[in-house]
Amino acid sequence: MKATSPKQKGLITAALIILLSGITYYFRRNFDNEIMLVAYFVYAAGIVWTLLAYHRQKDQPRNFKAYFQQGFSCFIVVTLMMVCATWLFLKFNTALQDEMVAYQRTQLQHLGNYSAPDIEEKLKQYRKILLPGYTIGAILSYLGIGALISSLLSVFLSSIKKAE
Predict the structure, then answer these.
(1) Is residue 96 one of the residues assigned to a domain?
(2) Which of 1, 92, 105, 148 is the most exposed place for a label (fewest CB within 10 A)?
């Protein structure tokens, strides 16, 4: 049986996160809940799975660069898939976009610092940056978390080699 590559592990991890997110949104109608922390756990588990599988292979370099490269191959695929999923979900879910704009409107009204035309202008600007803003947020969060987990585990696993 052929070993699963880091990219394939990234696809599996991303599919699980998208499935979990879809189920959560279907039942909860939002993503602001503790269940979504499980998505980050799945993400971390996918990277750990990739690096531990590499660690078990014989005759492979055991340095930080080699480990991080394996983790990178996994988390970059997850990042790409999650960015695409986030963009598609927001692009085609206009009801959610309207909900977010309505929430922003109430926040601006509660501040009391803006007139009605000012609020409408700010909401127009908000609507323009909504999709790119959330997409950039997904990129940065998935890249950051993936790089952090890969780096920490790469340091740990490469130091084990030295101890053996």
Answers:
(1) no
(2) 1
